[in-house]
Amino acid sequence: MSRQIRWKVCCTALLVLVLAACGVEADVGGAADAADDADDAGAEEAAVDDDPELDDGEAPDGDPIRIGSITELSGPFAIWGVPARNGMRLGVADINADGGVLGRPLELVERDTQDTPDEGATALRGMIDRDEIVAAGGLISSDVALATARAAEEDEVPLFLVKAGAEEILTGDSRYTFRTCLPAAPMNMGLLAGFIEEEELSRVGVIIGDYAWGRSIEDAINEDLAALDLELQIEVAPVDESDFTTYLRHFEDFDPEVIIATGHPPGAPPITQQSADLGIDAFVTGPNTPLAAVYEGVGSASFDRYVDMTCADVESPEYEELATRYYEEFGDFMEDDAVSGYGQVMMVAEAIEAIGEPDPAQISEYLHDNSFDPPGYAWEMEWTEWGEFANAQPMLVAMREQEPPEGINPDADWFPEVIFQSDPLEPYEP
Fold it and tell me: What is this structure's pTM?
């Protein structure tokens, strides 16, 4: 995701950075943590001391092993970054409740990148030099990740990406940077192509933002959908557009069966609402937006209409168990960003236990040499030598009006339904 995205908000302070139709710009942190993230962002020197407390197993002792949470806790990407951080917190708590790593406590060191590339790289190097972290994760913004990944490669410390999907982040020489949720941008259209083919859809409308991410999605659409027997109509809108009525009216005679809004991230929620208002009966695909944010802004108009990609298998028993405990601790629906954050901690802990010491270079080597199945994931984690997914199988979920499984999101009247999972996507090679 590009940091050029600037979400529009309507009148609420909860999760509204992406919700968009009224044209008021905001820097809200997002989710139930918005009120206390200002304190988190200012804690530049402090490690986490308020992790969820679990009481299974013997308490670890000795010097802590530190990993870093380096993500966007303020600004437009906080609705992704806060859940990623919280997932890491829950992972650390679980590891320590089970005796720690090599009998030592695991400790999470948090930094807010403030959606600034220089801050991301500086924060990572500070955590490496001062806090002696052995790995870090949580990055959302592609621009921040690009600078931070270069620092991780130079300092040879494993770094996990969550939603930073720009293809140029990984190079042919990358050995310490790993994707954990969103595949490289050119891979994402393979998922939608498979869905369109399976559903035998023949008319596809597209609205893209007139900037780098949108144009890259347009290129991928023209490449990946070209082989399918379908009609395409592409509309290009300014990235700060919030009223898509004119663009949607261009679709009325075309009568699309699906509108791909993945290339216009801030537009996906208002496109969903406005297409419903115009009576256009079509799926609207999003850009991996937090589902609670979509519902908060679009409400019932999202039901049976809004479709998005995810790295979490929301229908698996492992996800349900994890999401129940996540809600108990944080009071929020567990987005796939949180599943990714949790998984990052689990994989690092496994690597350290297996190699017998918290050595960053050996952790990276272990990650490359093995596959992982963290709870709640939609596919098994395995990477190419440059850190791209070797076998990504993202899912598409549709927003449905239904009661969630018990404990996951009490009192909600919605829950996502898995409607498609891709075959393994061919890894993007830099």
Answer: 0.85
